[in-house]
Amino acid sequence: MSATNKAGDNGYEYDHFVERVRSFYESRPSGELSAPIAHVRTYGCQQNVSDSERIKGMLAEMGFGFTENPEHADLILFNTCAVREHAEDRVFGNVGALKNIKRRRPQTLIALCGCMVQQEHIAEKIKNSYSFVGLVFGTHVIHRFPELLFNALTGEKRVFEIPDESGTIVEDLPVRRDGKFKAWLSIMYGCNNFCTYCIVPHVRGRERSRQPERILDEARSLIEEGYKEITLLGQNVNSYGHGETHGVDFPKLLEQINSIPGDFWIRFMTSHPKDATHRLFDTISKCQKVERHFHLPFQSGSNRILKAMNRRYTREQYLELIDYARSVIPDIAFTSDVIVGFPGETRSDFEQTLDLIRRVGFSSLFTFIYSPRKGTPATKLPDDVPIEQKTEWFKEMMQVQEQTAAARSAQMVGTHSRALIENAGDGYLEARLSDNTVVRVQGDESLVGHWALVEITSSGNWILNGRIVSVT
């Protein structure tokens, strides 16, 4: 794809439609603002955030400004998530509230995109029940956004573009990044794992890896622009490069990015245990810019449930990976995802999950009660555990994790670590360590975005307190 017209394999002319959208708004009747305003709201994972940054980059090229208030917008766009039913319910609730805006300002275009609308039954629901939504497009056609937007603005019919395909990688799309010192960098798209509970492979398509040269070029640009933390994104970054001819796998890619001159950290997410190798941990141990934090979802501590989930590893293999990682990277911290109440789970299965949590000592967990996703095999499994029982298990698991996190935090009191000051809170700053731990410190808001040496002075379950020793 050329950098000038960003044309895909179908000859799509990106620049042509960018100019047509810009001209459409510039030709609005006098008395209306010539510069259109967009409100973009993102739901879900970091990949969705990264996609929204590209959508906003395209909108900026089309002449849009931006607002946090949908009441003031000419275009309201929701980038949606399909991982759990709760996420979909939130979107529908918030979309329903837009009906009044559309009634007051008929010229406002309401658009939905992302994983949720890639599902056929969701697209049909929007088509039949949300007539005020004028543009709906799936995960595989983000690069065609200017064309789809122009068609929605000028056509007589609503635009629904949700092709059932794996999609292609389109480079050179503009990016309007939300952060000034932390950046997302997608290295691959899609997923081949087909866990029985997960809708992601069905809405994101099969794995496609970007060329390493393009990733390295983007990383160099970010570093030159002053970004201090770069997070590599993929549904399963460990499988980067599989099936490609360039010979660069994920450990090699980490080495290449680590070798770029500059003072920055490398983070990545997310990883699948079946593709986490000793060589990967050996590589991390040698790469000083790769943060000492590894998000490695285990989902269940029971081999029986792991098999039903189609996770393709055992609890023993998972624990061996943890042990090996700590043998070569003593200061590494692990976070994870876990599902409670998977169909057929018993008390014995759940207790094995609790045991694994205690044995690993995760710094934090992302915990979920199983949410059935239409079109996934898990919905066909018997599920005779009542939601009340699952909720009790969930609470019990959270108590175990709180105890684990509190013990780990207490051990860190008195230590000194380098940190990146990320946010300013109500009377404090938040600094994040290489192991992903958040430390609250005192300091001026002007320090946000700077490196600091931090001493840990006291601990809680989730957040440490500390003081800034020096700033760089």
Protein described:
By secondary structure, this protein is of the alpha/beta class. 35% of the residues lie in helices and 21% in strands. It has 3 domains: 148 residues, Rossmann fold; 230 residues, pyruvate-formate lyase- activating enzyme (Alpha-Beta Horseshoe); 56 residues, Nucleic acid-binding proteins (OB fold (Dihydrolipoamide Acetyltransferase, E2P)), CATH 2.40.50. The strands form 5 sheets. A 6-stranded parallel β-sheet has the order 2-1-3-4-5-6, sandwiched between helices. It has a 5-stranded mixed barrel with strand order 15-16-17-19-18. Strands 7-10-11 form a 3-stranded parallel β-sheet, with helices on both faces. A hairpin with a 4-residue loop joins strand 15 and strand 16. Helix 9 packs parallel to helix 10, helix 10 packs parallel to helix 12 and helix 13 packs parallel to helix 14. The radius of gyration is 23 Å and the shape is globular. The N terminus is likely disordered.
Brief account:
With 472 residues, the protein is an alpha/beta fold. The chain is 35% helix and 21% strand. It folds into three domains: 14-161, Methylthiotransferase, N-terminal domain (Rossmann fold), CATH 3.40.50; 182-411, tm_1862 like domain (pyruvate-formate lyase- activating enzyme), CATH 3.80.30.20; 416-471, Nucleic acid-binding proteins (OB fold (Dihydrolipoamide Acetyltransferase, E2P), Beta Barrel).
